[in-house]
Structures are given as C-alpha cells and as structure tokens.
Amino acid sequence: MFKKIFAIYPHPDDETFGKAGALALHAREGADITLVCATLGQMGRRMGKPFFANRETLSKIREKELREACDAIGIKDVRLWRMQDKTLQFEDPEELADRVERIVKEVKPELVYTYYPKHGVHPDHDALAEATIRALLRLPKEERPVVYASAFSRNCENEIGKPDIILDVSPVSDVILAALRAHRSQSEFMIRKLEQQLTDTPEKRDEIMAPFQRERYWIFSL
C-alpha cells in the first residue's frame, strides 16, 4: 500500500476524469494525497447551459468545483499554482521542473500520478507531465517514486503498449459520481444524461456505469 501520493495536473477536473477512482481508493486506505493544480482552467469553454459563468468568473467557479471534488475524493492537501491556462507549454521547462522538484522533496511521495508525456493530448497536460518526469529524474535512482501515467492519445497503445494497470474502481463509483458532479461547469450535460439513464433503466446500472469503473495507467520507467 502506498502511503504518500502526489498527483500533479494542469487543470481543475484533471484529478477527477479517469483518476478519481484510484485517488479515492488511496484515500480510503488512509494515504496522504497531495494535489497540485497548476492553473484554474480560466480558458475553459464550458460555462454551463444555461450559462452560470463568464470569462471573468470562471476561475473562481472552477476553484470552488475543484475543492468540492477533492473533498469528495478525500484529497486534503490541495495546492494551487494559479498559472495561466493554456500557457504551460511556453514556460521554461527547467523552471517548471524546479517547482515540481521542490514539492517532491517536501512530500517525498512513493507514488506520483501525472499524464504520460506526449500522450496527454492537451499541450498543458504534456508540458506539466514532461516537467514532472524531468524533476523526478533529478533524484537519485533509489529515491524515485513509482509513476502512474494517464494516456489517451489515439496512438498511445501503438507507441507505448497496453496499460500496465487496469484498475477496478467500482467500489468507489459513488465517490467518482460525486466528484464529477462537483465539476458542474465541465460535466453538467454528461451527468444529467448519465443520471437520466440510471433513472430510466436501473436494471442496466452496471452497463451504464462500466466506463467509470475501470481506470488505465501506464508505469513510466524512470
């Protein structure tokens, strides 16, 4: 069992979509989880339907959503860098790695969650993942944590192989739904559709929930 977990992602909701289950299982086991969210997703296009956010208010709304999702998951140490959304690819890679390294040396995680470099699709995902790997490679080999990386580019399995871990997160499916609901600005339409399906066809609950009950991770070799 891992006791110290470090999750590092660029945007509010990155910790939830495809990762909430694993993080919730760690929290349930009593692990200490530190989350870095580098931006507040200020440039996100989804602002509710009907709109309940605008470009000026979105960052505050998404911060609130993030904190609610982390409460649901069980993440107590949430660190916001408040960097500008959609700009991480333009940051100095060494300076970004310096920021990651400082937290790694403080937290001393046994396990790190991030995206798989070059397979995170969004430039912010890839830039922060690359900085994270760069920081971890600075550590003596015997001190480097295990890295569980998420990948979802179209060619990811052709380039990096099948996932090393396919995790059954069905025991925390209610937590996953709560975290998804918290990110209302990003998930409102999906959650409304999902809950309607569960109401209309309760006998198909397992089938409907199947996409949320397995999470895929690749172990990044350091």
Topology (elements, then pairings):
Layout: E1 4-9, H1 20-28, E2 32-39, H2 58-73, E3 77-83, H3 93-107, E4 111-115, H4 123-137, E5 146-150, H5 156-160, E6 165-168, H6 173-182, H7 184-200, H8 205-209, E7 214-219
Parallel strand pairs: 1-2, 1-4, 2-3, 4-5
Antiparallel strand pairs: 5-7, 6-7
Helix pairs in contact: 2-6, 3-4, 6-7
Shape: globular
Uncertain stretches: none
Order of helices and strands: EHEHEHEHEHEHHHE
Which CATH class is shown? Answer: Alpha Beta
What CATH calls the topology is Rossmann fold
CATH superfamily: LmbE-like
Approximate strand percentage: 15-25%
Helix content: 40-55%
Instruction: Tell how many strands the DSSP assignment holds.
Output: 7
Which structural class matches the secondary elements?
alpha/beta
Rg from C-alpha positions? 17 Å
What is the average of the pLDDT values? 92
The CA-CA distance between the termini, in Å, is 20 Å
Cofactor: Zn(2+)
Protein name: LmbE family protein
GO molecular function: hydrolase activity, acting on carbon-nitrogen (but not peptide) bonds, in linear amides
Organism: Neobacillus massiliamazoniensis
